[in-house]
Amino acid sequence: MLRRISYAAAINEAFIAIMREKKEAFHIGVGINTPWFVGNTMTGLLEEFGPDRVIDTPVSENGVTGLAIGAALAGMHPILTFPRMDFMHYAMDQLVNHGALLPATLGGRVKIPILVRAIINRGGEQGAQHSQALQGVFMHFPGFKVVMPSHPYDAKGMLLQAMEETDPVIFIDDRWLYDEQGEVPASSYRSDLDRAEIVREGTDLTVVASSYTVVLCRETLESLPGAPSVELIDLRSIKPIDSACLLRSVAKTGRLLVVDATWPKGGVAAEICRIVATEGFASLKKPIAVISLPDAPAPAAHSLEEKYYPRASDITAAIETLIG
Description:
Layout: E1 2-6, H1 7-21, E2 25-29, H2 35-38, H3 45-49, E3 54-56, H4 61-73, E4 77-82, H5 92-100, H6 102-105, E5 115-120, H7 135-138, E6 145-147, H8 152-162, E7 169-174, E8 181-185, E9 197-200, E10 205-209, H9 212-223, E11 230-234, E12 237-239, H10 243-253, E13 256-259, H11 268-279, E14 289-291, H12 302-308, H13 312-323
Parallel strand pairs: 2-3, 2-4, 4-5, 5-7, 6-7, 10-11, 10-13, 13-14
Antiparallel strand pairs: 1-8, 6-12, 9-11
């Protein structure tokens, strides 16, 4: 049975299903029982599963991450939440040198089944240290899968599939998506963690986006006069990237616009450009266009945020330039 529910409610449903199905699963993280940190994505979990399985911790990201990795090594399946992605910086030694690398450095003799949930909290005049989107950092390191669903169906399905993995998965959700509505089955199901989705088919231009920028691009395309023939791809996963889907689309359209809500250097957009430049260059009729954040820290003033984050007008202008 399909119902229309919000992105946040889909996450909540997934977590309740996971905790009921997997007795070895537990939640741990700073502020996970506080709606101010996690919205309504954790509603009801503490009441049903208790403080032994829904553990709201002191502010000690590196220590908490070490506890979660140790529990995974011991046969548990932790869901480690960072309510603000910015503070994953404190846990980088544990995440990268241990969580991501131990399975390989120990010759595959150990598995680390851990789901790392990272929440992007940007906008709202939160300033430079509370507005960072660090997905480009984590797609850089071997050992992680990194997924960024854009709609409620995938939010639930990717969480359920991530809990089937035996190595670390980083699930990134953006608070700007929490009110997005979509049709979601009441039952359990699984979404692929490694395939892109064609949201809209077209022949003149390929637009590639992920997470919140998929919504921004879709709404922009729906509002454009003249209905240009634009193909919109939702990456869904940024590690691995579905390069086959990307290259097929560019071969058809000959033009590429990448819309990425993080910094331009060494991130998602840069990797997409690398793939197309090295494997699909002959298909390009025009240079690749990229819309991203400025190479600068996030401002705190609302008036500056309006200029800082990608807008529909930026996408429209890029499409006009590429299609002519």
